[in-house]
Amino acid sequence: QPTLPLVINTWPFRSATQAAWNVLAAGRSALDAVERGCTQCEIDQCDGSVGYGGSPDESGETTLDAMIMDGSTMKAGAVANLRRIKNAIGVARAVMEHTKHTFLVGESASLFAESMGFVCEDLTTNRSLSIYSKWLEQHCQPNFRTNVTPDPEKSCGPYKPLKELKNGKPPSLQKAVDVHSHD
Amino acid sequence: TIGMIGVDKNGNVATGTSTNGASHKIPGRVGDSPVIGAGAYADSSVGGAAATGDGDTMMRFLPSYQAVENMRMGADPTSACQKAIARIQKHVPVFFGAIVCANKTGSYGAACGKAPGFSQFHYTVFKPGRSQPLDEVVDCL
Hints:
The structure holds 2 protein chains of 2 kinds. Chain A is 33% helix and 15% strand. By secondary structure, chain A is an alpha+beta fold. In chain A, the strands form 2 sheets. Chain A has a 3-stranded mixed beta sheet with strand order 2-3-4. In chain B, strand 3 and strand 4 form a beta hairpin. The model of chain B has no long low-confidence stretch (mean pLDDT 98).
């Protein structure tokens, strides 16, 4: 039994695996396969942690991060904090293939994507709005701020830095675990 | 987040990641997923790796690059993944994270760090001889 080709991905995102396999089975490249597989997850909004309408930030906006790497040429492309564009892995590939850079971020990455022909659309959904509303109702908990006032474990912002760090130390590396919110 | 490794029939390796990040993050925050060597890494002379979990922690240790280098030095994919997780646990004993690894010949494995509510990691594989994706699970370290 041959051991290649192969697709492996994190989490039980079967439709993404299937989509990538279909590309390899058609004789196309590994790069095409991972782009297609990750795109499928973006379309499916895999477990809410991929694609539009998930993981709203403190202001309720969904932004996307993606990266693609070709292990044969060591070329890579990446985008982060991408706004208003659903196909983040596609934009990452465009960075790889249509620039001499590696990593574009934020509003500028979105403008690049638009110039490359990607559709600009709202990434907000009723689900992401609901997650955001619930977070506001829970006094902005959980919260990633620390050493600020008002106390981020009890209150929403706006926040100002404390004059001195609590206990005189920066935050511990040890963090609370939320297995439903993952990168 | 999805992290994916693809290896074609000639052993060419590619990796990709896509995510909307952590819920309720501070605007502007970026995790490990789009960072090369953190969220994923590929080298067709060795193999590939892709990570998932708490990106704020994982991105400080470049676990995907570490795992590929472990394979370059002779580790099988499972052991390479385990060593990358163990390296983070030396500094952060309880963290939420997992990694999948595959080498250029089609062997693969995974590892994860045990954390409250996270004792097993599920991942998915498609390989020759299968008619549909294979669900795999690994116990966390």
